[in-house]
Design brief:
Helix content: 40-55%
Shape: elongated
Number of helices: 23
Number of strands: 17
Radius of gyration: 29 Å
Number of domains: 3
Length: 701
C-alpha cells in the first residue's frame, strides 16, 4: 500500500482540539431535542433495569453486544437515571471523534481538506439528526470506530496506541459484533502493511493483544456472574436465528431522480430524515418527493461506494498513499458493511460522515500543485457550506420543536410530527395518572422509552418485538401479561413495519380477547394508544380473519344479482386492537361466505363501525349500508341473525362497536356463515367495508 506523503509530528495540533470542541458543542446543541422511543429508549430502559438488579442476557433478551448497556448502567449508578447522562457521553465521544478525524487527515498532509473532513463529522449530529446525538449502540460504534482508527494510526509508532486500538476494537465488537469483526480484520491488515519492517509484527500483535485482553476480561466478568452461556447465545447464536428479519433493499442509483417500484412503496425509509422532518409531507403513501430530493438521496447512497473507490483509483494512478488514507479506508469499508442487509437511511447515517471525511482526505492527499490549490479552495467552501447548513438546520429544528409533553422523565422537546402527535402525550399522561410507580404495563411494539417515561415496569425480558423468532417470545409475553392492566399499542402496523398480528399472532389473540380501548380514553386517529384489561371475551374457536383466504367473496350489482369476486381481499393495517377483514362491494353491496362446522356454545363476535382506518391511504368505510350476519343452509337459503346499520355523521367517535350473535342453535351443524354488507341504494362500486377481527368463540365463563 505504501506510506508516502508527509509525516507530521505525533502530538495533536491545537486545531484538532478546536475541532473536537466544535464537534462536541454541535452535538450538545441537540441534547434538548427529540427523544427516540425505540433506539435510545431500548438502551435507557435496559440500563435502568440493570441498575435495579436484572442481568443482561439472563433477564433481558437482545442480540447486540453488552458494552453500551453495561456502560450506561454504570453511569446511571453514578449520576442518576436520566436520559441526559447518556447524551452527555455521546457529546464527549462526538467531540473526540471530530478531533480524531482532523488529526488523521492532518497526518496525511491534506492541508485545508483536513478541516473539511472534520467539518463533515462535526455537522453530522444536526444534518443527520437525530440518531447521532442519542445514546444508541450504532452511535457509540461509529465514534469508537473513529477513535480506534486514530489509535491504530498512532500505533504504527507507539505500542501503547496499538494496544489501545485493540481495546477499542474489542469494545466495538462488544457493541455491534459484525462491525467489530470487520474493523479488526481491516485495521490489523492496514497496520501490518504500513508498519516498518522492524515493527510491523510487534505492533500488529500488540493490537491483537489489546483486543484479546478486553475480550478476556468481558468473558471472565460474565462467567463470574453465571451469564456467560446466555451472553454467547444472545450475541453469537441469536443474530443467525434472526437471519434477514431486518433486511431492506438498497436504493436504486439509476435512473437519476426516480425510485424503483420497490423503493417507491416505502420512500420515507430512504429519503434523508432531516428532509422528512423539515418538509410538510401530505401523507406517508404519497410524500411528494420530487426528482431533486430523490437525486440527492441517490447521491448520498452512492457516496460511501464512491469514497471507497477513490483511494484505490488514486493509488493506481498516483502511487503510494499515506497510511492515514488506508486506515480511513478500513473504517469506511466497515461502515459500508454495516449497511447490509438493512440499507435504509437509519443505517446510512453512520456511513456518511466517514465517507465524506474519506473523500476529503483522499482529495487533499493529491500531490499535484494545481490540484492541491483547487482542493484547498473547495475545502474552505465546503467548511463554510456545512457551517451554514448546520446552523440553518439547527435553527429550523428548534423553531419546529414542540413543548416538552412526554412527562417529567423525558424533558426533550419533540420535533418530528410523530412525536408531536398529541396521542403520545395522551398515552403517557393517561398511564401515569392510573398506575403506581413500578407497576407493570406492556408496550406492545417498539417504544421501550415509554416504560421510562411512565415510571412503569416491563413484565417481559424483551425491549420490543424480535422479528423472525416468535417462539418462545410469544409464550413469555403472554405469561407476563397475566397481571397487566394496561397495554400501550402502536398503530404503526403495515407491511413496511411488519404486521404485529403476523409476527406474534398468539399475543395478538390474547390482546383481542382480554383488552379494549378504555371507555374514558379519548381516541383520535393517532399512531399510538392505550388498551385496558376488560372481561374475558372467550377463547377463539374459529378465527375468520385467519380463514379469509378460504372464504367466497361476492358482490351484488344494481339489480340485486350476485356474482363471485376474484379480487384479492385488501390487506389493511390493524386499528384499535382489531384486524380489519375488508372486502369490496358492488353497487348494492357484497359479502364473504365461510363454510364452518358450528362448535358447541358458539358465539359470533366482531367489531364494526370504524369510519376510517387512518394512516397511509386513509381508507374510508362505505356509507349508507348495513352489516349483517346470516346463516345459510344446504339449499342456499339464508336466515338473517343480526343487522347493524352503519350511518356515519360528522363528529362520530373513532371507535369500534362490538356485536355478538349467539350461534348455539346451530351447534354441530355445517353452515354457511355470511358476513354481508347490504346497501339500500346504489353506492360507488369498489367501496370498502370491514369487520374488526371476526371470530367464532365459546361463551366465556
Amino acid at each position: 500500500m505504501g506510506s508516502g506523503g508527509p509525516q507530521l509530528h505525533s502530538r495533536p495540533a491545537l486545531t484538532s482540539w478546536l475541532w473536537a470542541a466544535l464537534g462536541g458543542l454541535t452535538c450538545a446543541a441537540m441534547i434538548p431535542l427529540e427523544p427516540s422511543l425505540l433506539e435510545e429508549g431500548l438502551i435507557v430502559h435496559f440500563a435502568q433495569r440493570m441498575v435495579h438488579g436484572e442481568h443482561l442476557y439472563r433477564d433481558l433478551v437482545f442480540f447486540s453486544g453488552p458494552f453500551p448497556f453495561e456502560l450506561l448502567a454504570m453511569l446511571f449508578r453514578i449520576f442518576g437515571e436520566e436520559i441526559v447522562v447518556g447524551r452527555v457521553l455521546v457529546v464527549l465521544l462526538a467531540g473526540a471523534s471530530t478531533g480524531c478525524v482532523h488529526a488523521i487527515a492532518r497526518r496525511a498532509g491534506t492541508g485545508a481538506a483536513a478541516h473539511a473532513a472534520a467539518a463533515a463529522m462535526a455537522s453530522s449530529p444536526v444534518l443527520l439528526f437525530p440518531l447521532l446525538s442519542t445514546y444508541f449502540y450504532s452511535t457509540l460504534s461509529l465514534h469508537l470506530a473513529v477513535l480506534a482508527a486514530y489509535a491504530a494510526l498512532r500505533g504504527l509508532d507507539s505500542v501503547r496506541f496499538a494496544f489501545a486500538a485493540g481495546v477499542l476494537i474489542a469494545c466495538i465488537a462488544l457493541t455491534k459484533q459484525s462491525l467489530g469483526v470487520v474493523l479488526a480484520l481491516g485495521f490489523t491488515s492496514v497496520m501490518f502493511a504500513n508498519g516498518s519492517a522492524s515493527r510491523r509484527v510487534r505492533q500488529t500483535l500488540t493490537l491483537v493483544a489489546g483486543g484479546a485482553a478486553a475480550a478476556l476480561v468481558t468473558l471472565i466478568w460474565f462467567g463470574l456472574r453465571g451469564d456467560l452461556g446466555a451472553m454467547i447465545h444472545s450475541t453469537v447464536v441469536m443474530p443467525f436465528e434472526l437471519g434477514d428479519s431486518f433486511a431492506s433493499g438498497f436504493v436504486n442509483l439509476w435512473p437519476i431522480g426516480e425510485f424503483d417500484s420497490e423503493t417507491r412503496q416505502n420512500q420515507a425509509f430512504y429519503v434523508p430524515h432531516l428532509y422528512n422532518i423539515l418538509s410538510e409531507l401530505p401523507t406517508a403513501r404519497d410524500p411528494g418527493f420530487g426528482p431533486p430530493i430523490v437525486a440527492l438521496t441517490q447521491f448520498l447512497f452512492a457516496l460511501p461506494g464512491v469514497a471507497m473507490l477513490l483511494p484505490l483509483a488514486l493509488r493506481l494512478f498516483a502511487g503510494p498513499l499515506p497510511a492515514s488514507i488506508w486506515f480511513g479506508e478500513a473504517l469506511l469499508v466497515a461502515m459500508i458493511f454495516n449497511l447490509f442487509p438493512r440499507a435504509d437511511w437509519g443505517h446510512l447515517v453512520f456511513a456518511l460522515p466517514v465517507a465524506a471525511a474519506q473523500v476529503w482526505m483522499t482529495v487533499g492527499s493529491a500531490r499535484e500543485a494545481g490540484f492541491r490549490k483547487a482542493a484547498s479552495w473547495a475545502s474552505w467552501i465546503c467548511v463554510a457550506a456545512l457551517a451554514l447548513a448546520t446552523s440553518t438546520a439547527a435553527t429550523e429544528l428548534y423553531q419546529m420543536a414542540g413543548v416538552a409533553s412526554l412527562g417529567p422523565r423525558v424533558p426533550q422537546l419533540p420535533v418530528s410530527r410523530a412525536y408531536q402527535d398529541p396521542g403520545v402525550a395522551r398515552v403517557i399522561e393517561f398511564v401515569r395518572a392510573r398506575t403506581e410507580p413500578g407497576e407493570r404495563i406492556f408496550v406492545a411494539r417498539a417504544e421501550p422509552l415509554l416504560y421510562f417515561a411512565t415510571d412503569t415496569r416491563n413484565p417481559t425480558p424483551y425491549g420490543g418485538v424480535l422479528p423472525g423468532v416468535p417462539e418462545p417470545q410469544q409464550q413469555t409475553i403472554i405469561e407476563g401479561l397475566r397481571d397487566v392492566r394496561y397495554v400501550v399499542m402502536s398503530e404503526i402496523d403495515q407491511p413496511s413495519f411488519m404486521f404485529y398480528r403476523d409476527e406474534l399472532p398468539a399475543v395478538q389473540a390474547y390482546l383481542e380477547r382480554f383488552f379494549r380501548v378504555p371507555d374514558e380514553y379519548r381516541v383520535d386517529p393517532s399512531w399510538i394508544l392505550v388498551l385496558e384489561r376488560r372481561p374475558d371475551r372467550g377463547a377463539t374457536l374459529i378465527d375468520l380473519f385467519d380463514q379469509r383466504s378460504d372464504a367466497r367473496a361476492w358482490r351484488r350489482n344494481r339489480d340485486g344479482f350476485e356474482w363471485e369476486s376474484t379480487a384479492l381481499l385488501p390487506q389493511l393495517a390493524s386499528r384499535l386492537n382489531r384486524r380489519p377483514l375488508a372486502f369490496e362491494l358492488g353497487r348494492r353491496g357484497g359479502g364473504l361466505d365461510f363454510r364452518i362446522e358450528v362448535p358447541d356454545h358458539a358465539i359470533f363476535g366482531a367489531d364494526v363501525g370504524l369510519p376510517t382506518l387512518g394512516g397511509p391511504g386513509d381508507r374510508q368505510h362505505a356509507r349508507g349500508i348495513s352489516l349483517e350476519v346470516l346463516v345459510g343452509d344446504e339449499n342456499g337459503r339464508f336466515e338473517l341473525l343480526h343487522s347493524e346499520p352503519i350511518r356515519f355523521r360528522r363528529g362520530d367517535a373513532y371507535v369500534w362497536r362490538p356485536i355478538e350473535v349467539d350461534l348455539s342453535a346451530f351447534a354441530g351443524r355445517s353452515i354457511t356463515l355470511r358476513l354481508q354488507a347490504a346497501a339500500s341504494k346504489a353506492i360507488p362500486p369498489g367501496s370498502l367495508v370491514w369487520w374488526g377481527s371476526p371470530r367464532i368463540s365459546e361463551q366465556p365463563p
